[in-house]
Design goal:
CATH topology of the largest domain: Outer Surface Protein A, domain 3
Strand content: 35-45%
Order of helices and strands: HEEEEEEHEEEEEEHEH
Structural class: alpha+beta
CATH superfamily of the largest domain: Ribosomal protein L6
Helix content: 25-40%
Shape: elongated
Number of helices: 4
Number of domains: 2
CATH class of the largest domain: Alpha Beta
């Protein structure tokens, strides 16, 4: 039995929950999120707390108990506080700029790359090299940040590319350093 799945989820002020047999909808000040409820589970609400309950015990309920609780908790957090991922651009001449709501990246290619954010996602640029991806859906925020990072992954020799804030890029010695060591 999952220890995470047993934990209750606190509902802050301003968050409303609508449940059907197969779907949970969480509405809050930042937006609205929907999640299908897996078969074999039920969600109970009382005194501002949500709990995930197993209706039918089988192989899949043990696997997905903690996952379902985490997904619902992320929905509640997203519609109240939101989520954010920060990216850094490293490299000479690499920079980012905003044109309206679109992000324009110059990453050493022959052309600039324009990214239009999906609905519910906001992109922001600070001092040409720091990007912030914010939104109320944790999955979308992570996916957009990963797509931006995939445009120019950090390379191990000079460390140029797009990295997550706080990410460590393992550096390799170049040919000259490897030859001198032998």
């Amino acid at each position: 039995m999952s220890r995470i799945g047993k934990l209750p989820i606190a509902l802050p002020e301003g968050v409303t929950i609508e449940m059907t047999d197969q779907l949970i909808t969480v509405k809050g000040p930042k937006g609205e999120l929907k999640q299908p409820i897996l078969p074999g589970f039920a969600i109970e609400q009382d005194d501002g707390m949500l709990t995930i309950v197993i209706k039918r015990e089988n192989v899949n309920t043990a696997k997905y108990f903690g996952l379902l609780r985490t997904l619902v908790a992320n929905m509640v957090t997203g519609v109240t506080a939101g989520f954010e991922k920060q990216l850094e651009i490293r490299g000479v001449g690499f920079r980012a700029a905003m044109q309206g709501s679109n992000l324009v990246l110059n990453l050493g290619f022959s052309h600039p790359i324009t990214i239009t954010p999906p609905e519910g996602i906001t992109l922001a640029v600070a001092n040409n090299t720091q990007l912030t991806v914010t939104g109320y859906d944790k999955q979308k925020v992570g996916a957009v940040a990963a797509q931006i990072r995939a445009l120019k992954k950090p390379e191990p020799y000079k460390g140029k590319g797009i990295i997550y804030a706080g990410e460590h890029v393992r550096r390799k010695a170049g040919k000259a350093a490897a030859k001198g060591a032998a």
